[in-house]
Amino acid sequence: MEKVAVIGAGAMGRQIALQCALKGLDASIYDVSNEVLDTARLFSAQYLDSRVDKNRITEEQRQDTVARLKFADSLEGCVDGASVVIEAIIEKFAPKASLFESLGKLCAPPTILASNSSNIVGSRLAAVTDSPERVINLHFFNPVLVMDLVEVVLHPGVTEEVERAALDFCNSIGRTSVVVRKEVPGFIVNRIFRALTREAMNLLEGGYASAEDIDLAVTRGLGHPMGPLYLMDVAGVDVSYLARLDEYTETGNEAAKPNDILEKLYHEGRWGKKVGKGFYDYPETGDSGVQR
Ligand SMILES: NC(=O)c1ccc[n+]([C@@H]2O[C@H](COP(=O)([O-])OP(=O)(O)OC[C@H]3O[C@@H](n4cnc5c(N)ncnc54)[C@H](O)[C@@H]3O)[C@@H](O)[C@H]2O)c1
What we know:
Layout: E1 3-7, H1 13-22, E2 26-30, H2 34-53, H3 59-68, E3 69-71, H4 75-79, E4 84-87, H5 93-106, E5 112-115, H6 122-126, E6 135-140, E7 149-153, H7 160-172, E8 176-180, H8 189-205, H9 211-222, H10 228-235, H11 237-251, H12 260-267
Parallel strand pairs: 1-2, 1-4, 2-3, 4-5, 5-6, 7-8
Antiparallel strand pairs: 6-7
Helix pairs in contact: 2-3, 11-12
This protein binds nicotinamide-adenine-dinucleotide.
Nicotinamide-adenine-dinucleotide binds next to helix 5 and helix 11.
């Protein structure tokens, strides 16, 4: 049976690993933080219990999924025997590059080495391995257990076999894939999302409207399921800030520069729903459930 290894058990990694296990693949997940790994274990158990309670999966499926999902205590143990490795660690180039250097040594071809980065293109990570033809982006969307799409991003060094294997992998875990044939920071969805959120923040910074009204205008006027500012809180203000900063630093493109308000929220630790505050406040009792 195919094995998938996921590195980083944060918001994304824990869901990617669980989705793979739910779809019948052996999945192993590792994080440098034992605390995060414990939280990921609890998250998986609670999610599976709730799926059984809602009759979405059977008790037998729950048990099979639990048996397939392993929480590894070392990087080596996590990637051992994997045919696909997905990196989902912090959105900073240096730690990602260092990890890919290790992965290149630990995992022999044809194991695919994929990054879930929102912004950092595969060729930058491929450069630190000695087999760049198998380094790609597999970009999932939050929440992974709900969102159907994966962007498969290729660079010129990627072989057709790797492309085919990546598309087969996405299909095998029940996800729709689109191929981005020419690398570009932000790929398809986030480029469009950034244009939208940049303008939403421009309006907020200019005092033209409140966060609530900007979000309401987009949900009611454009038919989006969530407003752009609320969606940034859901996705993580820190993730948005670091991705923009990386693109700006890489390209010098002024349009990619993080808005002042985004920089301020990042440095104030207002990283969105996961910490209870971002563009909005989320009282300790949790999110009100209001879809802004
Ligand atoms: N949050 C989103 O909406 C979203 C969506 C798509 C893609 N992404 C991308 O996914 C990646 C992860 O994002 P996230 O929101 O899950 O972040 P997160 O902060 O929730 O989780 C990152 C985890 O990586 C761990 N980590 C850091 N360095 C590590 C290392 N060397 N080895 C093992 N674990 C390490 C941290 O302990 C942390 O638990 C980022 O590249 C981000 O751009 C995020």
